[in-house]
Design brief:
Leucine-rich Repeat Variant, 4 domains, Rossmann fold, 640 residues, 59% helix, alpha/beta
């Protein structure tokens, strides 16, 4: 009884605590406190039906340790089944942990787990807990346990619904298994890709993550080809676009520009410049964004601007590792606060001592000089405190570029004026009287500085003035560029920082008319240190490209978020429209932005009718809603 009272009190306190460290420590204490005996099992089973979620969570995590007791395995498993479908998510996660313990420590329980996966009455939440329970076993990596875990995952694919196996491919196989056992992961994906089940093929597509693509490029390409062929056959006619796997990386979402994707991958690996020329809607901005995703992040930096005591109008630049900039400023703030606290403490101690001494001598010796001396001492202390306080309140550095906890930056500088592109210095309305702002705090980075370590993208390159193109050329040559005031009437017109780093990958885009307006030296720089790419407007009408167009439909629906998914018949109608818009026999259009407009228009019609899915009739009806102005004028003239 005393143990039950102690655990009840511990659970009560942990329920009130919001600190996860205390919760973890308390659960570990209770794990050690309950003996692994029949009495301990009775106590744990009582908590499995407790009204408090934390009590049920504790029981779910601890139950599996009692499976090895005589005649207790079935009872333990029954309790875990109930907790795996609990209404509280925390309890369900605890049940997944308990199942993982059962799988790792008690292989005789494996038949029970198999039956739960294959049983027709087993709920998907239980199957999901079983699937999640394989994660710790995969991380541990013991061969016999790993084989059992992969067997359970395969059974979950064969018998579980989408709610049970949603993350099997991407999370469990593509991330966890691929990171620790890449060969096993690739073998399993190849097995799934050739499986007759659509669920297995979908999970194979989701499991082809970058870590496997980079390590096994040929095998990954073969798997993708096999999956494209399966998608083209579409022997599972009841599927919708919700069942089409969508890649997580932007580079894998680009359709119809295989040569451009290949060059962008090379340019990202070698940090080369790229000039993308093509018709609107062919994926230029998406290619630039995808390039930023491919860049490494291990060399990202923060940039700080410090006041210059020798020359106020020339702030100093400091480069530190990513994430260190904000920490340095916090350290300086703490140092200032500590210095001010110490100064105030010493000041008031000195004031108290001066008052006491002057008052003592004034009263005991009746001397006015003692009072005058005390007053003079207080004035000196006050002046000294002001001087030292001003020194302690020295301006803090400004964090100009913060790259903490992020991927390589992608900065779209399309249409930027010179100040936004190259940096500027803000105007200070209070320029005297002790209210002025330190010059270094007025400095603002330009797009070239914000893109340091990442990608600077400029669409419609002809919109850049020749002066800005010349400055951009200087920045990419020197890989650093000073920030100066660019408004002649501003108080910051004289401010000019030390050269700030701007080592970026430049991606320019436009159409053929923009090329003639480029600065010759800038284009020469790109041709000498990068690639010029002309984007295709059509692609061959082959099964692989039709499968990619089906992927594009699924991508657009997920991006939009306001329209329902489409049937496979509607996907065929979109592909037929892509053939018509290509205006070339045996080709499909690669101007996918306009095709995306058709998909959204069809989805809007389905929403207005209250339809659960977009059908081919919606796609055909939407064609009249997305006609260009020129097409509408021609039709109107024909009717008259």
């Amino acid at each position: 009884m005393w143990l039950r009272s102690v655990i009840d009190e511990a659970l009560r306190r942990l329920s009130l605590s919001r600190d996860p460290r205390w919760v973890t420590a308390g659960l570990r204490f209770m794990d050690c406190a309950i003996p692994q005996t029949a009495d301990g099992l009775r106590l744990i089973l009582d908590y499995a039906s407790a009204p408090e979620p934390l009590g049920r969570y504790f029981a779910a995590r601890r139950l599996a340790h009692f499976a090895s007791l005589d005649n207790s395995r079935a009872e333990v498993w029954h309790a875990l089944q109930v907790l795996a479908v609990d209404r509280d998510r925390l309890v369900r996660e605890g049940a997944a942990w308990g199942i993982a313990t059962l799988l790792a420590d008690d292989l005789p329980s494996l038949p029970l787990l198999r039956d739960a996966l294959t049983g027709p009455a087993s709920p998907d939440l239980l199957r999901r807990a079983l699937v999640l329970g394989t994660l710790p076993v995969i991380r541990d990596g013991r061969p016999d346990r790993l084989d059992a875990a992969l067997e359970l995952i395969d059974l979950a694919l064969a018998h579980g619904g989408p709610r049970a196996v949603g993350g099997v491919g991407a999370v469990i196989v593509g991330r966890e298994l691929a990171a620790r056992h890449p060969e096993r992961a690739m073998d399993l994906i190849e097995q799934w890709a050739g499986h007759g089940s659509a669920a297995h093929r979908r999970q194979a597509a989701r499991a082809i993550q970058p870590v496997l693509t980079d390590r096994f490029p040929e095998r990954a390409a073969a798997v993708r080809g096999r999956l494209d062929g399966a998608a083209h056959r579409r022997d599972h006619l009841d599927e919708t676009s919700a069942d089409i796997p969508v890649p997580t990386r932007l580079i894998d979402q680009i359709i119809g520009q295989d040569q451009a994707v290949k060059i962008v991958r090379l340019a990202a690996r070698q940090r080369r410049f790229v000039l993308l020329i093509g018709e609107p809607g062919t994926g230029k901005s998406l290619l630039a964004s995808a390039m930023a995703e491919l860049l490494p992040t291990d060399q990202l930096e923060d940039v700080l601007i410090h006041p210059n005591r020798e020359s106020r109008i020339s702030p100093q630049v400091e480069r530190v590792s990513a994430g260190r900039g904000a920490a340095l400023i916090r350290e300086r703030q703490v140092q200032q606060q500590q210095a001010l606290a110490s100064l105030n403490y010493l000041f008031w101690v000195a004031v108290g001592a001066a008052i006491f001494i002057s008052g003592f001598f004034s009263l005991t010796r009746s001397s006015p000089w003692a009072a005058l001396g005390g007053a003079a001492t207080l004035i000196v202390l006050w002046l000294t405190r002001r001087r030292w306080s001003a020194a302690a309140h020295a301006p803090l550095p400004k964090l100009l570029i913060d790259n903490a906890g992020r991927a390589a930056p992608f900065v779209d500088a399309t249409g930027f004026h010179a100040g936004a592109l190259l940096g500027d210095v803000r105007h200070d309305p209070f320029q005297s009287g002790g209210f002025e702002t330190p010059p270094h705090e007025l400095v603002e980075p330009g797009a070239i500085h914000l893109a340091h370590g990442g990608v600077l993208f400029v669409d419609e390159v002809s919109t850049l003035s020749l002066e800005s193109q010349q400055s951009l050329l200087t920045a990419i040559q020197e890989k650093r560029f000073p920030i100066s005031g660019r408004s002649l009437g501003s108080s910051g017109a004289m401010v000019r920082t030390e050269p700030a780093p701007c080592d970026f990958v430049l991606v320019l885009s436009g159409n053929m008319g923009d090329v003639a307006k480029m600065h010759p030296a800038l284009r020469s720089r790109i041709r000498g240190y990068g690639y010029e790419v002309y984007l295709q407007t059509t692609m061959p009408d082959v099964p692989a490209n039709r499968a990619r167009l089906a992927q594009f439909v699924a991508q657009e629906i997920r991006k939009d978020g306001r329209i329902p998914h489409v049937t496979m018949a509607a996907v065929d109608a979109v592909i037929e429209e892509a053939r018509r818009r290509s205006e070339r026999p045996g080709h499909l259009t690669a101007r996918l932005r306009e095709l995306g407009g058709l998909i959204r228009a069809a989805g809007d019609l389905a929403v207005s009718e209250g339809a659960a899915l977009v059908g081919p009739e919606h796609v055909r009806a939407a064609r009249s809603n997305v006609m260009t102005l020129e097409e509408q004028i021609v039709i109107q003239n024909d009717t008259h």
